[in-house]
Structure formats: structure tokens, C-alpha cells
Amino acid sequence: xxxxxxxxxxxxxxxxxxxxxxxxxxxxxxxxxxxxxxxxxxxxxxxxxxxxxxxxxxxxxxxxxxxxxxxxxxxxxxxxxxxxxxxxxxxxxxxxxxxxxxxxxxxxxxxxxxxxxxxxxxxxxxxxxxxxxxxxxxxxxxxxxxxxxxxxxxxxxxxxxxxxxxxxxxxxxxxxxxxxxxxxxxxxxxxxxxxxxxxxxxxxxxxxxxxxxxxxxxxxxxxxxxxxxxxxxxxxxxxxxxxxxxxxxxxxxxxxxxxxxxxxxxxxxxxxxxxxxxxxxxxxxxxxxxxxxxxxxxxxxxxxxxxxxxxxxxxxxxxxxxxxxxxxxxxxxxxxxxxxxxxxxxxxxxxxxxxxxxxxxxxxxxxxxxxxxxxxxxxxxxxxxxxxxxxxxxxxxxxxxxxxxxxxxxxxxxxxxxxxxxxxxxxxxxxxxxxxxxx
Length: 439
Ligand code: B12
Prior knowledge:
The protein is of the alpha/beta class.
């Protein structure tokens, strides 16, 4: 069979004022361009799991045009996150109308399988590991079942693991590649819509496979910057240190997502900097502990907030920058929060900052709570699940206040002079740490 694996790609903001503002802010535009160029690791993994007798073609669609030309495939697999799922459905409908069998999978489909099933011959829930070869065999024999369930645990076990097909990216202009080293996160935050939702436990890939993947990606892409597509890489510090030690000799530059507890481990911090880690993205969520109450079942983030500033300093002093992420519109947030975040960013020395609005992605505990409380603005708002659009009624401010506060923070944080000021401050932190070590 000729199998077309199609990723809905690109980035989205529906709120026009914010989008317009974003386009004029250099800091925001440059990060947008960087991330928009990431390939779909989900589909490269599906490709890796495909029995070798079938031909696999990998495509990306950033904007589905009405006249998009269909290709001659025997089977189509589509992957999309929530924001572009309606485009994925429209594409699936067109292929099916043309007589091509369509399989849908990924995070959104796993959480909304009944909705997705209306647009597919078959839906695959959870990881493609442990099930995709069966799906392909059934499609080949013309007996696709309407629903399959892939693995939620043991996805990296040798019996089910397949290396993502990075070779499919050959000849394309990527400069960043994602590699996954772990799936899930024990923190279990109410809002989380990442791989935690398709796993039953935190899982780590055997380190030798991570190393092989990085080597394999480098065979087709010249000197890529690596982004680890993990929810929280350094949950297990011992494993984390072994991972970093194994990455160090590969001479790469890389980035990952983790939690603030890395600041407690001096050895890990030293190893990180020496291994080519340039940045860690950390969900700080809110500068004040009070707003973090109940965010995760153990209130772990709440207990950490009072030491955020010290922790950021400790990480950045090693030459690894922190991309601090804030969620605006939490239940305890009043309109004062925007100034609080701005002030925190100024004193913190954070080099990069991500400002997003709380988003009730379908299928998350946050979605179910806000639905129960009658606070969702629309019943179906998937194309507004962008992390920048307000889809619910905040508790202590109006929707308009939240939207206005987002614009205020965008303008305050993503402008050139503010970034230069943060950069100077960051350089001072690094220089004084170096002087301390020498002295
Ligand atoms: C890389 C990345 C991107 C890349 C995506 C490239 C791509 N097309 O995949 C880019 C930069 C383009 C991107 C864009 C966006 N992203 Co993004 N992104 C990520 C990131 C960092 C990693 C995702 C990843 O590679 N995971 C690893 C792979 C292996 O997992 P996977 O995709 O789930 O695939 C497995 C299974 O789901 C399944 N599977 C997946 N697809 C299919 C298809 C078939 C046919 C089958 C059988 C199985 C299957 O099998 C795979 C192997 O097990 C995550 C955050 C994170 N730390 O995970 C956010 C994340 C996925 N993004 C998110 C968001 C919100 C966005 C944007 C809306 C941002 C914006 N404002 O524009 C857009 C959405 C675009 C869209 N298509 O809808 C949210 C999505 C939440 C959700 N449930 O929808 C996440 C979780 C981050 C967050 N803060 O919550 N993103």
C-alpha cells in the first residue's frame, strides 16, 4: 500500500487584536517562526512502526485550502492537535469521499474518539505503539475496525518501540528536530493537555534509543537544534543525569521542558550546561503561591512558588536559560495579576517568557470542571484552543479584562528593548556566577 501520513501543522491565534499585536512584536514573531518549523514526531513514529513492505509518504498542511489537491494514497493517517482538528476532519471527509480509507489518531482524537469517528474509517486511541502494524494489516485486508487502542504504558518497551523515520525529512528545510525521551508527568496538573493524557504512568525511553534517534536525525538534517518533546524530562534525577551524560558526547545544542526541581540538584545543573543544553522551559504558571492552590493534586507547584526567584537564578547562573511560562486567568487571578507577572519577570532575570491564557482543552479535568460550573463560553471551541484565546469565564475578572491583560503583557514583555534589558541582566547573572567560581 501507499500510505499518506499527514500532519496538520503551523501555529494559531484567533483573537485578531492579539494576533495583530503579536505580528509586530519581534520576540514573539521569532519564537513563532522557530516552533512553526517543527515536524510531527507523532507521525514520524507512526511511519517507523509501519511494516517495511508498505510505502510511506509524509506531508504537512499548515492551512487547508479549499482546492487542496488529494494524492493517490491507499490509506491516509492524519494527526492533529485540537486547534486544527476541524481542518483534519475536513481533509478526512474529502479523502473518504474519494474512496480512500482514513485513520485518525493523536491527542485530541484519543480524548474525543466519538467525535473523530464521524470523520474516519477508523480511530486510534493513545500511542500508535502496539497497534499500528495491526491497523495497517487490517487496512490492507480491507477489514479496518472502527476503533483501536494503542498502548498507554510500556510504549518504549523493545517489543513495541520503533525509531521515528527522521529520514522522511530529507531535503526539507528543518533546523529543529524533536526527540521524545519520556512520556507523561506525575504532577498531573488540572489543565495539562499534553502526553500525560494518553499515558497511564510516567515512562522513560531507554537511553541508548534516545542516543540512536539523535544520531539518526543528524544523518538527514544538518546540525539541527534538538527540542525534547517531553512533558517533564527530569522527574527522575538519576535517570536524568544518565541521559545528560549520554547526550554530552554527541555535541548537540538542545532544549527541553521540565519542572523547577532541577534547581535543587547542583550536579544535574552542571551536567546540563556541559552537555549543550541551552534552555529549559518551566511551567511556573503564576508568581504567587495562592493562585497555584489545587492546580496539581499534591499542591506541589504551590509549595515551590515561594522559591521561584532563587531557583531561576541557580539554573541560569550555569548558562542554561529558563523559559518561564505563565498561565493567565487562573481562578485566584484578579486584574492585578498582569502587573504582578510583569514585575516578577523584571526582577527574575528570566531571559525568555511565555504568556498564555488558561485553556480548557477538551477531555482535561479543567474542561470538565469549567463545564460543570457553567463557565465555558461556547459548547464547541476547538479552533480557539490556541493558548491565546479566552474560552471561559474567569472567576475574578471579566473576559474583556483577561483579553486586555494579555495584550498588556504581550506589549510589555515581547518588545525589543525589554528583551535586550533581560539579556543584559542574564549576562550579568552568568558573569557574576563565573567570577564567584574563579574567586
Ligand atoms: C512539537 C509541538 C508542536 C509542533 C507540532 C508539529 C506537529 N505537527 O506535530 C508545532 C510547533 C507545529 C505545534 C503547534 C501547535 N501546538 Co504544539 N506542541 C508540540 C509539543 C512540544 C510536542 C508534541 C510531540 O511531538 N509529542 C511527541 C509525539 C510522539 O506524541 P504524539 O504527537 O502524541 O503522537 C503519539 C500519539 O498521539 C499517536 N498519534 C499521534 N498522531 C497520530 C496519528 C495516527 C494516524 C495514529 C495512528 C496515531 C497517532 O501516536 C504517536 C506515538 O505514540 C507539545 C508539548 C509537549 N511537551 O508534548 C505541544 C502541544 C502538543 N501543542 C499544543 C498546542 C496548543 C499547539 C498549537 C495550538 C499552538 C498555537 N497557538 O498555534 C499549535 C497547534 C497546531 C495543530 N496542528 O493543531 C498543545 C496541544 C494540546 C491539545 N491537546 O491540543 C501541547 C500539548 C502543548 C501544551 N501547552 O499544551 N506544536
